[in-house]
Amino acid sequence: MKIAIIGGGSVGLLLAARLCLAGSQVQVITRTRQQADELTQYGLLLRSLQGEQKRIHIQAVSMEGALPEADLYVLAVKQTSLTEVLPVLRKLAPSARILAVQNGMGHDDQLKEVLALNQIYLGVHTEGARRHSFTEVEHTGKGIWQLGSIVGQDQESLILDPIIEAFLSMGEVAGLDIMYVLDIHMVMWRKLMANAVINPLTTLFEIPNGALLDSPDTVSLMKRLFVEAKEVASLHGQKIDESTWQEIVQICRNTSRNYSSMLQDLLNYRPLEIEAINGYIVKRGRELNIATPQQEAVYKATLLKAGLMAQRG
């Protein structure tokens, strides 16, 4: 089976490296020709959790032309880059499948505008990764991968798509903690809760994930953000309880050395995914007439900080 990973950021490169090491046929599709050329010429350097370094030969092309033929396209670009990719996705063969692994919410609605529902699968992961250059990625924290159909399924009528079933097997061979879930939207909401707590605070304070747990003040801020997001999620039919809070704390521990993707974007002067995370919660709160002052405060503060950084840069 041919896999094409759209996006040469930290997550896309980490997934490509691990699948390649396990013998899968993988191609990386980058936004720039420069990154594609460098990956093809120099290969991809993976720094493992154990500190080992491996140089991996990998195929790469840029998005400037038509997408190469593949059975599964893993969409690993940022929410902020999604509009650039959507026109190209319209041209995919009906037999192709898309696995979208964006942070935040809202990308599912955009994908439904350009693809058939049976083509779209959504993924959520808690893996920690950091891209050091176009051709170097570091695995900074082990997490889990969960994926499911955009339309949702029940156990009695579940018939797993052969392409998705093959990808699950490949992921297991590559050492991923990967599973198929019947209600991926529930998982997405739980991941949104984590992103809405961890990402803006690590970005505002410029600290790694684990440092949030070092002070009772930051833990208190985390909890207040969690409570507001929980209220919004609950009115969207999501069952969020204390176990979700414990999951967020555990993510901070498991990825203690990792800089959140939002902080990495800030430090590299890239657009932030704040609109699809805290902005999404604030927007949904207003629609439901729920006050979210803490969420709105960090949302506005993060936007302000990004604007100031851009001016100085």
From TrEMBL:
- Cite the Ketopantoate reductase N-terminal domain residue spans from the record: 3-150
What highest taxon heads this organism's lineage? Bacteria
What SUPFAM superfamilies would the database entry show? 6-phosphogluconate dehydrogenase C-terminal domain-like, NAD(P)-binding Rossmann-fold domains
Annotated Ketopantoate reductase C-terminal domain residues: 184-301
Q: In which pathway does it act?
A: Cofactor biosynthesis; (R)-pantothenate biosynthesis; (R)-pantoate from 3-methyl-2-oxobutanoate: step 2/2
Any one GO MF annotation of this record: NADP binding
A biological process from GO? pantothenate biosynthetic process
Catalytic activity line of the entry: (R)-pantoate + NADP(+) = 2-dehydropantoate + NADPH + H(+)
Q: Which GO terms describe its cellular component?
A: cytoplasm
Q: Which InterPro entries match?
A: 6-PGluconate_DH-like_C_sf, 6PGD_dom2, ApbA, Ketopantoate_reductase, KPA_reductase, KPR_N, NAD(P)-bd_dom_sf
- Which residue spans traverse the membrane? none
**Biological role stated in the UniProt entry:** Catalyzes the NADPH-dependent reduction of ketopantoate into pantoic acid.
Q: What is this protein called?
A: 2-dehydropantoate 2-reductase
Q: Which organism is it from?
A: Brevibacillus laterosporus
Q: Give the classification, highest ranks.
A: Bacteria, Bacillati, Bacillota, Bacilli, Bacillales
